[in-house]
Amino acid sequence: MTTNLQAATTLNNGVRMPWFGLGVFKVEEGAELVEAVKSAIRHGYRSIDTAAIYQNETGVGQGIREALAETGLSREELFVTSKVWNADLGYESTLAAYEASLAKLGLDYLDLYLIHWPVKGKYKEAWRALETLYKEGRVKAIGVSNFQVHHLEDLKKDAEITPTVNQVEFHPLLSQQELRRYCQEQGIQLEAWSPLMQGQLLDNPVLQEIAAHHGKSTAQVILRWDLQHGVVTIPKSTKEHRIIENAALYDFELTPDEVARIDALNKDQRVGPDPDNFDF
């Protein structure tokens, strides 16, 4: 299991992806964003996750460039993810969206490019575009986000390449057992967005009790639970002390009993949209 912040999982195409990274959902362009990215990289993070719809790729790219200059790391040591938005799902439009994301980020390639949502009747053409980008060596790995089992099954009918990653809402109140099992069987790496349920879990008594036992924060217990389930996780924070705290997960381990107690909190409760019922 993961022993440090640089620990990585090997995706189904052989590419290595860090188990832990920084998410920047709802972080606006500007100095705070640039500083958060730099701070994360400075403190050992090697994975940064953004998306076209976040409208902050320019700042993320600036943070990456400044961090590389400061730390002497190479671009190849980082793992950068972005996602194609729903309005751009289509063969040509997805190819164009990829170029637009690269231009904003100021990068030559992405490590991972995802279809952000499974828009009915649109995601197969978008997937064909991702396969083209992958075959041309323009992107290291391709995957999806917010796909349920039936979306993945549908995609599989026409896809030449199996997605490497499925990034979904995942936290103790939405532990996605069926999807997790399916992805494991198919060799698709599950990745958690909103792992802390946008802060709504931080005062959960079961989590607080386990955290107190380990001398850790509730957030650290949740993120450790993700990792022990083999789920890649990308908590969002712009505050340096929180960025450091979130990553301090490698000096303790949850017992099987504690993992089971956290698993038992599941209510299939979402904080984000339902992938089977969204209209954007």
UniProtKB/TrEMBL annotation:
CDD domains: AKR_AKR5G1-3
Domain NADP-dependent oxidoreductase: 31-266
SUPFAM superfamilies per record: NAD(P)-linked oxidoreductase
Protein name: Aldo/keto reductase
The organism's place on the tree of life at top rank: Bacteria
Pfam family, one: Aldo_ket_red
InterPro entries: AKR (IPR020471), AKR5G (IPR044500), Aldo/ket_reductase_CS (IPR018170), NAD(P)_OxRdtase_dom_sf (IPR036812), NADP_OxRdtase_dom (IPR023210)
PANTHER family reported in the protein's UniProt record: 2,5-DIKETO-D-GLUCONIC ACID REDUCTASE
